[in-house]
Amino acid sequence: MINTAELKEVIALMNEGGIQKLHVEHDGTVIVLDKTLTEEATKVLTPSKNNEVELTPPLKNEEPSKAVCEVRSPMVGTFYSSPEQGASPFVSEGDRVRANDIVCIVEAMKLFNEVEAGIEGEIIEVLVKDGDIVEYDQPLFLIKQ
What we know:
Blueprint: H1 4-17, E1 21-26, E2 29-34, E3 44-47, E4 53-56, E5 68-72, E6 77-80, E7 96-97, E8 102-108, E9 111-116, E10 121-126, E11 133-134, E12 139-144
Antiparallel strand pairs: 1-2, 3-4, 5-12, 6-8, 6-11, 7-10, 8-9, 10-12
Function: This protein is a component of the acetyl coenzyme A carboxylase complex; first, biotin carboxylase catalyzes the carboxylation of the carrier protein and then the transcarboxylase transfers the carboxyl group to form malonyl-CoA.
Protein name: Biotin carboxyl carrier protein of acetyl-CoA carboxylase
Pfam families: Biotin_lipoyl
């Protein structure tokens, strides 16, 4: 069985190495970590009495073809929703975006980094406010494909 400290170490190595999917088997326990899955596509894995893994379907009954994806912060910094103070935001809830559309700016050490949507879809929620400090990999937007 993998203990919590070992699991945290595996997750940290996965994050540092930019690994999107990892399958680990150790002493009869199987762990699958997959960052590419959306919340709707995620299955809950629960071990049974004989260490087999059972799949539990997601709790939400939404259209499987309409995935919700997160746009995450590429770094620690300050979130800006518009190109300059007083200007209209790059995007708002309900806006349609293309993969290369700029959705915000994250400023770190006087470097202003434009963040692109990464996928085509509709902005369904802005998760942070203008001027908020954001962490690396923190979700900024939810986009429905």
